[in-house]
Amino acid sequence: MNVRGFEGWLAGVLGAQPWAEQVTRWSTGEGPKPVGLTLAGRVHLQLVGGDQKAAPLDPNDAGVVPAVEASPTDPAGCAEAITRTVAEAGMPRVKSAETYAAWGGSTKPGGMRVVFVDGSELFASIVDSGRR
Known about the structure:
The chain has about 130 residues and is of the alpha+beta class. The chain has helices spanning about 5-15, 75-90, 100-105, and strands at about 25, 35-40, 45-50, 95-100, 110-115, 120-125.
């Protein structure tokens, strides 16, 4: 999965969630890094990894996005809500999505690991606005 393609897909999926409010992409096309999203003007989610040579997303990958009930107030809660949204969106190219806490491979307080059917992995970490 291409990280920029996932950024666009995730922006669309999260944009359908009332708790995410306004979702803004950090980059478009082949623009400069970092790659990520800002939710509600205050939650910054940086995306890294994936397979840069992966095929572009199929427009049908978005599908109908279910509403995920959430009221995140901290990085861990935001990560949980975002991860549940990715899992419930049912993108055929996503094999699994789990929070850092469930995965156990990171000590960061908020984030998720996404594994794709092509074997690539993507990591999304909640960072403060000063680091973007």
